[in-house]
Write a structure and sequence with these properties.
By secondary structure, this protein is of the alpha+beta class. The protein has helices at residues 5-15, 86-89, 104-111, 138-149, 196-199, 214-220; strands at residues 24-25, 31-36, 48-57, 60-64, 72-75, 97-103, 125-136, 161-166, 178-187, 192-195, 203-206, 228-233, 255-264.
């Protein structure tokens, strides 16, 4: 997706004498315009759309993702109400772009769960410009990764996968114990976002006191002193829809942690 897509969409919209003449409508009443419609595979329920997004009223811009230097991640869910924007997301795929028109009252009251801000009149219309950079699905991405890596370890009930490399003989890392580990954290594409080994600074924490993400709480508690293992942690056991580390860990990201339990006190 070219970085100048959204400015182009805004220019096109401004040049139309009557935008409503080109609008389409979903069966439940969502009004929209398709600007680029090239994706053969469209998003389905559960997919994550990685998008550039700009929204506002007819005469003002409220939000522009380009101002933050990173895209927005939207999960395709069931519509919040008939005619909600979720109905339009399933019309999009990688490379597509569209504009959606929604009631300001519905956006703020039903989606943002807050009253209309000053300057936005009741009954007014809000405009959402969306350009799709990529479509992700955490389950599909993980399945592909496991297949490519030849990992056959079974996921636990929670979804956590533990792949042991070396079996230690020391003490078990029980809740309430102080545990010291070395670790390297990465994304499925191999991007390393943190490593105690690179800093040569082992990490110490108390298990069971909420000092680490849930995937660590569960995974480390199943290891013992001397174990070397890979923890494959789904996003809901890590940083979920918010991501972390200033955008280095994106929303809905499965995380890989190669850990070595050095000491259990």
């Amino acid at each position: 997706m070219k970085k100048y897509l959204l400015p182009l969409l805004l220019l096109l919209a401004a040049c139309k004498p009557e935008a409503k003449n080109t609008r389409l409508v979903t069966p439940n009443g969502l009004q929209y315009e398709m600007h680029i419609n090239v994706a053969e595979q469209k998003a389905v329920l559960g997919d994550i759309l990685v998008i550039e997004m700009q929204y506002g009223t007819a005469d003002s811009i409220i939000f522009d993702s380009r101002n933050y230097g990173r895209p927005v991640y939207l999960q395709v869910t069931n519509p919040a109400y008939p005619g909600s924007m979720e109905e339009g997301l399933v019309l999009l795929g990688t490379g597509d772009s569209a504009t959606f028109y929604l009631s300001a009252d519905s956006v703020y009251n039903r989606i943002f769960n807050q009253p209309l801000p000053p300057g936005i009149k009741a009954g007014s219309e809000m405009v959402f410009h969306i350009g799709v950079l990529a479509v992700r699905n955490e389950d599909r991405d993980l399945e592909k990764f496991l297949l490519n890596q030849g990992i056959t370890d079974t996921a636990r009930y929670s979804g956590l996968i533990i792949s042991r490399k070396t079996v230690g003989k020391g003490k078990t890392a029980l809740s309430g114990k102080k545990v010291t580990v070395h670790y390297t954290g990465s994304l499925l594409d191999g991007t390393i976002f943190d490593s105690s080994r690179e800093r040569n600074e082992p990490f110490t924490f108390v298990l069971g006191e909420g000092q680490v993400i849930q995937g660590w709480e569960e995974g480390i508690a199943l290891l013992r002193e001397g174990d070397v293992a890979r923890l494959i942690i789904p996003s809901y056991l890590a940083y979920g829809p918010k991501g972390a580390a200033g955008g280095v860990i994106p929303p809905y990201a499965t995380l890989l942690f190669d850990v070595e339990v050095l000491k259990v006190e």
